[in-house]
Amino acid sequence: MKKFANGFITVVLISVFVFASGVNLFATETRVSSMGGVGFFMKDNSNIFYYPGTINQYSGQVIGELRFKENASSYTIGVNYPINDNSVFGMYLNRPIAIGVPYGVVQEVVLDHTTDFYYGMKSATFDLGFRLSAALDSYKDRDTVTKESAHYFAFGAGLSSEKTDIGLLAEMPGVNHKEPGDYEDKWSGFNFGAGARTFLGENTKIVPVVNFLMGSSKAEYDSTSANNDVEYTNMDLG
């Protein structure tokens, strides 16, 4: 049997958050999540994942995250190394990601964490930043000769100033399951996103935030039976 699926998702989120603060607040990624995911509305070192240009504001930092015991993504380690006064290189190991792989395509490999590389540079008017992310996982059963693989690649870029941040994202995840007899299941996708925010006011901050995400995916399931081939497509907007 052969099945084929296409999916398309568009999400537009516009939010406004108001908080009173006279100083910049900094918190770890885990703490930001525990506060309800308000990281978009505050200046924080975890913002570099969404707005790569902000890495220039955290040059010289070393960051560590501890999460849950016996969890493959239980820790994240990152460093923002200053190359000189106007540029910085960053590397983050084991950063969690959320990728919705369809159920049943693979059983032994996962796409739940990635390694990030950053480069940031300053100019007279704004800060520029880039992010390259990659993750690979593989599995092979020597008895059944079953093989599975997973990959994730992403590229991000951003512009940041004292009051405004803009970020762009493109990501390409995929998984594959192979068994003897030309049996193969696979899934792949492509996502594109953009976000922007600006800090208005002095003592009381008004922070408009706009996020946009658009993606498509394709799953294909094969078997040795060629008599009941079925194909279908679907499209979702939301």
Number of helices: 1
Number of domains: 1
Number of strands: 10
Strand order of the largest sheet: 1-10-9-8-7-6-5-4-3-2
- CATH architecture designation: Alpha-Beta Complex
Main features:
10-stranded antiparallel β-sheet, mainly beta, 3% helix, elongated, Aspartate Aminotransferase, domain 1, 238 residues, disordered N terminus, disordered C terminus
Question: Helix and strand layout, with pairings?
Answer:
Layout: E1 3-20, H1 29-34, E2 62-66, E3 75-84, E4 87-96, E5 113-122, E6 127-141, E7 146-160, E8 164-179, E9 183-198, E10 204-221
Antiparallel strand pairs: 1-10, 2-3, 3-4, 4-5, 5-6, 6-7, 7-8, 8-9, 9-10
Characterization of this structure:
Residues 1-27 and 224-238 have low confidence and may be disordered. The protein starts with a strand and ends in a 17-residue tail after the last strand. The chain is elongated. The chain is built from one helix and ten strands. With 238 residues, it is mainly beta. A ten-stranded antiparallel β-sheet has the order 1-10-9-8-7-6-5-4-3-2, with no helix packed on it.
What is shown here, in short?
The chain has one domain: Aspartate Aminotransferase, domain 1. The protein is 3% helix and 56% strand.
